[in-house]
Amino acid sequence: AQTVTQSQPEMSVQEAETVTLSCTYDTSESNYYLFWYKQPPSRQMILVIRQEAYKQQNATENRFSVNFQKAAKSFSLKISDSQLGDTAMYFCAFSGPGANSKLTFGKGITLSVRP
Amino acid sequence: NAGVMQNPRHLVRRRGQEARLRCSPMKGHSHVYWYRQLPEEGLKFMVYLQKENIIDESGMPKERFSAEFPKEGPSILRIQQVVRGDSAAYFCASSPSTGTPSNQPQHFGDGTRLSIL
Question: Which of A60, A75, B43, B77 is 20 to 30 A from A35, alpha carbon to alpha carbon?
Fold first, then answer.
């Protein structure tokens, strides 16, 4: 069974600064997918970024990028130029290959961006 | 293009009643997933359905919970004889019909917040 661990319950960052959110996972699969989802106070679940395990290049979406270390089973999210609207809970998630498509989520981290 | 639609947004039930939560996937999506989020927790997978088929129900409690995704109409998550511990946010997600399920990101609805009195 896969597990996803987010060991930091909360973090705080100054507006315009950079912050990194940590995530580790455990799996015996060789191919899989990793995601970061954002959940603002409105409770929506918003996909931030996705990484395919067979791709060595780290995914990037505007101010969001990941540091994917497959051997270490680490998948951290870097948010550059933090904005007040980035304040939310962030969940790391794992999906296996093929028909094994359900998402396994970490417990989440609460990120607060200070003005 | 409408997103994943869940209703109701909020549902209040008394202990022992039945709760029915509805989910209409995005247009062109035939894979539906249900997750439950307890307060201060991450989402936990419950069940994965395709049209008229349950593919994976490994996260569903053995009793009182059932799910369906009929040929026509929304997916329904049904909780019979609700108890206080069923209070949670229930999220539905869908993914496209093309490609392998895991190759397509899941798009989430806004959730149904279930409160049991």
Answer: B77
CB contact under 8 A, A103 and B55: no
Residues 6+ apart with CB under 8 A from A55: none
Q: Which amino acid is at A79?
A: I
Q: Report the Cα B31 to chain-centroid distance in Å.
A: 11
Unique residue bearing structure tokens 């997933």:
B33
CB contact under 8 A, A45 and B93: yes
- Confirm if B36 and B88 have CB atoms less than 8 A apart: yes
Residues facing A104 on adjacent strands = A94
For A68-104, how does the pLDDT look when each residue is reduced to its tens digit (9 = 90+)? 999 999 999 999 999 999 999 999 999 987 665 789 9
Query: Any bridge partners for residue A111, and if so which?
Result: A11, A88
